[in-house]
Amino acid sequence: MWYLHDGAPPHFARQVRDFLNVEYPNRWIGRNGPIHWPARSPDLTPCDFYLWGHIKQLVYSEPVNTIKELTARIRVAAETIREDPTVFGRVRASLERRARDCIDNNGLQFQHLP
């Protein structure tokens, strides 16, 4: 398992990084972590630009009536994504497109682009 965080100031605290180094040795992605990632970069963070939206789409395709039902739907959605062999290819292609957009926009926000 890997851990990805967004580099927000509270997540960058020494205690947090120490915890991540113990719990996820060489397997966490973030500011000054073993795998570097741009701080507060929703444009480039796969969890922000793909995963959460896709999970919400699967979970809320119909109204949810109870916490138990919500929990079950989240589990099913995560399993559905995990078992789909095309998901990571689509995420990678989207990340490459977003990285190009970021470069083309001199590092400025580009979420408004199609």
Biggest sheet strand line-up: 1-2
- How many E-type strands? 2
Determine the mean pLDDT.
81
- Unreliable segments (pLDDT under 50, ≥5 consecutive)? none
Characterize the biggest β-sheet: 2 strands, parallel
GO molecular function: nucleic acid binding
InterPro entries: RNaseH_sf
Organism: Aromia moschata
Protein name: Transposable element Tc3 transposase
Explain this structure to me?
By secondary structure, the protein is mainly alpha-helical. Helices cover 52% and strands 4% of the residues. It has a two-stranded parallel sheet. Helix 1 links the parallel strand 1 and strand 2 (28-29).
Write the layout of secondary structure elements.
Blueprint: E1 3-4, H1 14-23, E2 28-29, H2 46-59, H3 67-83, H4 87-104
Parallel strand pairs: 1-2
Helix pairs in contact: 2-3
InterPro entries: RNaseH_sf
Organism: Aromia moschata
Protein name: Transposable element Tc3 transposase
Tags for this model:
114 residues; mainly alpha; 4 helices; 2 strands
Task: Provide a compact summary of the structure.
InterPro entries: RNaseH_sf. With 114 residues, the protein is mainly alpha-helical. Helices cover 52% and strands 4% of the residues.
